[in-house]
Write a structure and sequence with these properties.
By secondary structure, the protein is α/β, with parallel strands linked by helices. The protein has 2 domains: 34 residues, no CATH class; 123 residues, Rossmann fold, CATH 3.40.50. The chain has a 4-stranded parallel β-sheet with strand order 2-3-1-4, sandwiched between helices. The radius of gyration is 26 Å and the shape is globular. This is CMS1 protein. It comes from Cnemophilus loriae. InterPro entries: Cms1, P-loop_NTPase.
Length: 202
């Protein structure tokens, strides 16, 4: 008997060339190219003007402007955190001794995350000596706990995130009257390569 072969229809070859997707430009790509540079007073002033420009009058924006005498020299990126603090605050021992007020700090360090706050607290050991440092961020710490601590004890340095510091000030848990220094962690970048100032919520 003769064998019968069924001819199979030829499979069409799938086009191997897939339609190229347009690669979206990520903020991290843009930020990767920008080299770290010390923050200048003008940088902060520009940010304030941009942020408040739409809903404030010209006079109100003028009132927000800080004179250059309000600013200390920025870290030129050669200092460690402790050595930078020693340079800008040579009379720290005296300030620390004189500070007796509760619900307040002498120095406030603002950074973008809780992990970064812990990093900075560890790196300032050479500067802080025996003064008390308070963690001012939301991770694992309730706002009520922080308010109780501020009410009961005297703290010299607060290190935390803008969101939690704002909440403490609004709820009258933190008073800023006796504060002498605000340090902004300007150049540090997170995993997405954003600085604190690149985060819209901040």
């Amino acid at each position: 008997p003769t064998e019968c072969f069924l001819s199979q229809p030829e499979e069409k070859q799938e086009s191997t060339v897939k339609a190229k997707r347009r690669k979206k430009k990520k903020i991290s790509d843009v930020l990767q190219k920008s080299a770290p540079k010390p923050g200048a007073p003008a940088d902060l002033q520009n940010l304030l003007t941009q942020h408040f420009g739409e809903n404030r009058s010209v006079i109100e924006i003028e009132e927000l402007k800080l004179s250059d005498s309000c600013f200390l020299p920025a870290n030129d990126l050669t200092h460690s955190f402790s050595s930078y603090l020693k340079e800008i605050c040579p009379k720290w021992a005296k300030l620390r001794r004189n500070h007796k007020e509760k619900k307040s700090v002498v120095m406030l360090v603002l950074c973008s995350s809780a992990l970064r706050s812990l990093e900075l607290i560890k790196s300032m050991t050479a500067f802080k000596g025996d003064c008390r440092v308070l963690k001012l961020f939301a991770k694992h710490i309730k706002i009520k706990e922080q308010m109780n601590m501020l009410e009961k004890g005297v703290f010299h340095i607060g290190v935390g995130t803008p969101g939690r510091v704002k909440a403490l000030v609004e709820q009258d848990g933190l008073c800023l009257n006796s504060m002498k220094y605000v340090i902004l962690d300007w150049n540090w970048r997170d995993q997405k390569l954003r600085r604190m100032m690149d985060i819209p919520e901040v």
